[in-house]
Design goal:
This is 3-oxoacyl-[acyl-carrier-protein] synthase 2. Pfam families: ketoacyl-synt, Ketoacyl-synt_C. Keywords: Acyltransferase, Fatty acid biosynthesis, Fatty acid metabolism, Lipid biosynthesis, Lipid metabolism, Transferase. GO terms for molecular function: 3-oxoacyl-[acyl-carrier-protein] synthase activity. InterPro entries: 3-oxoacyl-ACP_synth-2, Beta-ketoacyl_synthase, Ketoacyl_synth_AS, Ketoacyl_synth_C, Ketoacyl_synth_N, PKS_Beta-ketoAc_synthase_dom, Thiolase-like. There is one protein chain. The protein is an alpha/beta fold. The chain folds into two domains: about 240 residues, Thiolase/Chalcone synthase (Peroxisomal Thiolase, Chain A, domain 1, 3-Layer(aba) Sandwich); about 150 residues, Peroxisomal Thiolase, Chain A, domain 1 (3-Layer(aba) Sandwich). The chain is about 35% helix and about 20% strand. It is built from 13 helices and 14 strands. It has a ten-stranded mixed sheet with strand order 5-4-6-7-1-8-14-13-9-10, sandwiched between helices. A two-stranded antiparallel sheet has the order 2-3. Strand 13 and strand 14 form a beta hairpin. The radius of gyration is 20 Å and the shape is globular. The chain starts with 5 loop residues before the first strand and ends in a 5-residue tail after the last strand.
Length: about 425
């Protein structure tokens, strides 16, 4: 069976540095730092971690009916707003489509921890009769995809992907496969997350996963020798992924093409990546094979780059294994230096950064990079972005449980 092509025709972003694609991208280009003191809850002296990359100035009711918004957890609101933005940019008229050819596949790592925490407190203090009847329908991760489907009448493949911090990229890859295989014409896809709560921050702190820095400019510092943990982020990155002939027939403006995807598992440890990076490297190699390209073709890698010691060490080893000598040529950057680690949202947000990078021929920087690590000797685009003609961009993410996910996007050539 001939594989169908999948193109991106719309994007939507809610992020710590901007709540539209343009605001987000313009912030990345100038290296704006979205990290600051936690405001989602009142910090006490018991909390070692005081910084996060929170979404700012977000008002769902600018996009969603107030009554509908109240029935959605914040992560689902983020996803819905991203979808609304993406649909508007795509120019799709969904009412003219076969609803069974439309889908939504969204990555969510944890669901609504805030509501879980609040309802648990209510149960302990006031008893089971005080639990909200909307508790379950708001907290489960599939409600990001479910609410989008309900809003737009999408009756094709609609589901959530949960592979921890690889969720967004895995979701986009599964959407790509659905279109490639002919199961759908249009899929809303990407990732969404909102987990900056006392319970989550305390939990990740207990894992020694979070940076305890008090300086926003030295907290999320991927590839820097002084990196000491990630910074909690949040938001959503949603795209409209569309079958090429379908997009062409309606005269859509195509932003980029998804051409390759792969996913592997370390099968090693519940939180730590396997130190050789073999499985991650294999995912990169398989994604390139899927795209029909070689390491010489990749122009840019948007790295997972979480600012944790083993992530950058293993990720760098994986890149060297997968790319050989080409690894030293390819610019690599981590936008988590600006937006923190969005967990399930990361893959969607970072894929949109790749779309914009391909469109504009500009590589966003890894900001606040100061102290080189001798073991990490690749080109991490430190501190200042750069103009460069780009053809293929790779975005990789990995998650607890050993999950590795890689997608490859291609610059759209209007002559194709």
């Amino acid at each position: 069976m001939d594989r169908k092509r999948a193109v991106i025709t719309g994007t939507g972003v809610v992020s710590p540095v901007g709540n539209t694609t343009d605001d987000f991208w313009n912030s990345l280009k100038v290296g704006k730092n979205g990290i600051g003191p936690i405001t989602r809850f009142n910090l006490t002296d018991d909390f070692k971690v005081s910084l996060a990359a929170e979404v700012k100035d977000f008002d769902a009711t600018q996009y969603i009916d107030k009554r509908k918004a109240k029935r959605m957890a914040l992560f689902a609101q983020y996803a819905m707003v991203g979808a609304i933005q993406a649909l508007a940019e795509s120019g799709l008229a969904l009412g003219e489509e076969d609803p069974y050819r439309l889908g939504a596949i969204i990555g969510v790592g944890m669901g609504c921890m805030h509501t879980i925490q609040e309802e648990t407190k209510k149960l302990i203090e006031k008893g089971p009769k005080r639990i909200s009847p909307l508790f379950i329908p708001t907290v489960i991760p599939n409600m990001a995809a479910g609410n989008i489907a309900i809003e737009y009448g999408l009756k094709g493949p609609v589901f959530d992907v949960t592979t921890a911090c690889a969720s967004g990229t895995n979701a986009m890859g599964e959407a790509f496969r659905a279109i490639q295989s002919g199961y759908a014409d249009v899929v809303f896809t990407g990732g969404a997350e909102n987990v900056t709560t006392e319970l989550t921050v305390a939990g990740f702190t207990a894992l020694t996963a979070l940076s305890e820095s008090k300086d926003p400019n030295r907290a999320s510092i991927p590839f820097d020798k002084e990196r000491s943990g990630f910074v909690m982020g949040e938001g959503a990155g949603i795209v409209v992924l569309e079958e090429y002939e379908h997009a062409k027939a309606r005269g859509a403006t195509i932003l980029a093409e998804v051409v390759g995807y792969s996913t592997t598992c370390d099968a090693f440890h519940i939180t730590a990546p396997e130190e050789s990076g073999e499985a991650m490297a294999r995912a990169m190699e398989l994604a390139m094979k899927d795209a029909g390209i070689t390491p010489k073709d990749i122009s840019y890698i948007n790295a997972h780059g979480t600012s944790t010691f083993y992530n950058e060490l293993v990720e760098t080893r994986a890149i060297k294994t997968a790319f050989g000598d080409e690894a030293y040529r390819i610019p690599i950057s981590s936008i988590k230096s600006m937006v923190g680690h969005g967990l399930g949202a990361a893959g969607g947000i970072e894929a949109i950064a790749c779309v914009k990078a391909l469109q504009e021929g500009f590589i966003p920087p890894t900001i606040n990079y100061r102290v080189p690590d001798p073991e990490l000797d690749l080109d991490y685009v430190p501190n200042v972005g750069r103009e460069q003609d780009l053809t293929y961009a790779m975005s990789d993410n990995l998650g607890f449980g050993g999950h590795n996910a890689v997608i490859i996007l291609k610059k759209w050539d209007a002559e194709v």
